[in-house]
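Fold this sequence, please.
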Amino acid sequence: MDEIMPSSFAGATPVRVLNRDQKLLQWISSVDHKQIGTMYLLLSILFLVIGGGEALLMRTQLAIPNNHFLSPEAYNQIFTMHGTTMVFLVAMPAIFGFGNYMVPLMIGANDMAFPRLNAFSFWMTLFGGGLLYFSFLAGGAPDAGWFNYAPLNEYNYSSRPGVDYFAIGLLIAGIGSVGGAINFIVTILYYRAKGMKLNQVPLFVWMIFVDSFLILAAFPCLNAALAMIEMDRQFHAHFFNSASGGSALLWQHLFWLFGHPEVYVAMLPSFGIFSEVFQTFSRKPIFSYAIIASSSVAIALLSFGVWVHHMFAVGLGNTVNGFFGAASMLIAIPTGIKVFSWMATMYGGSIRFSIPMMFAIAFLIQFTFGGLTGVLFAIVPIDWQLTDTYFVVAHFHYMFVGGAVFGLFAGLFYWFPKITGKMLDQKLGTWFFWLFTIGFNTTFLIQHVLGLIGMPRRVWTYPDLPGYGVMNFISTLGAFMMGTAALILIVAILKSLRSGVVAGKDPWDGVTLEWYCDPQPGRKNFDKIPLVRSRRPFWDLKHPENPDWKNARS
């Protein structure tokens, strides 16, 4: 230890400046929610680069008809790893990263309820992801798709160990997710600032709260299925082997009983981020806080009643299909309510077109379009025509990327000053936004047309049929635009960390408690936790003479 320096928060005891090795050890052994949240975010960015690279390899293979850039075996492995990476190793760590960093700050807590469990959850996620990617060195990555359908996941069809690494890696990462969800629930229930009622927590905190219950209910279904497939493969248990009395459809039921709630596990935190962004940059309180919060609970409950719409083509019968088709249409109602609430928040507001706000507005357009195409899949005859075509690929990416990932980007630009003390470079950020948004729509909008004319998904290559080659080439160009945008984002982050503009304590004129404490707070977040009297506690402290935010325009 080199020298003694004062801490960044008033009244604290001095802290020691650590050398490089000691700093690394401090991060590895940390139980501080801010450092763990930062490590989650760095892990997400790492896997975003890897998963994005896999997507570019796939799009290069599909750029022209009858291409042999990748072998069928390599394509299947990359296809499987791309989907698995983006769902489990990009979206989940990013959600837990923002949640870990921001939830205690937003509710006036100094840490999570169980700091060691918090660290354990992160390292389980990292170890599970590392084990999954070790499969490339251990005889071949999994190649049965990120959904890993039976019987393709059985030993007779996938004799290489890739599926075993898939099952064990995701099982380990899933244990970390369940531990993190328990931690969030206890923290939000019992560690709120004095005076902060549950109906006064910021909407991002509310979404994490609901999300945690979704994780606790959904992940055990996946973990059970993963344990069962390992018993099938290693001990010949025959859970999913139809020839031996098992059921291949049992895997689909268990997987999608997890898989559709997982869509909302990824979406709800982004909904919370957008709620914070819309009210901050519209200079208005969020329209109908109670309806947005209660509709999130409705989404969580309904999400467990729609999983069969992924299985309309397997022959379950008209009665079952009709019930789940109706449920799939019903879940669009609370989702649509949120869209109207966000639009009403902007209406009449003093809108600032910051980069987070630009991502939020782009999300509204893309998510609405993706939701409308989702309603089509709730209509069983249409689903029969479009299932297993590129229309499904386009719809899913409009929801997952155009919704969840755009929300995570908005959160990155919104909270980057709080996490680093620096403003994220605005010029490079603007380039990133436009290039990524145009590239995203170029990639996936045209895939709706590909699906309508019959191009199947999950294919290694395709014949030179009319329109196939041109539209796939355009889609590939869009994917490389997104890849270029990702490089610009990384450059912007590195540049901002090295020489960015100092952000100050409250760069956005925020209203929630994370802006009350210093940028990059020390081990202790708050010296004195303020008494909370409303849903806008920091605004109350800044402007005690003007508690009505509606009349404050900037």
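The chain has a mean pLDDT of 91. DSSP finds 16 helices and two strands in the chain.
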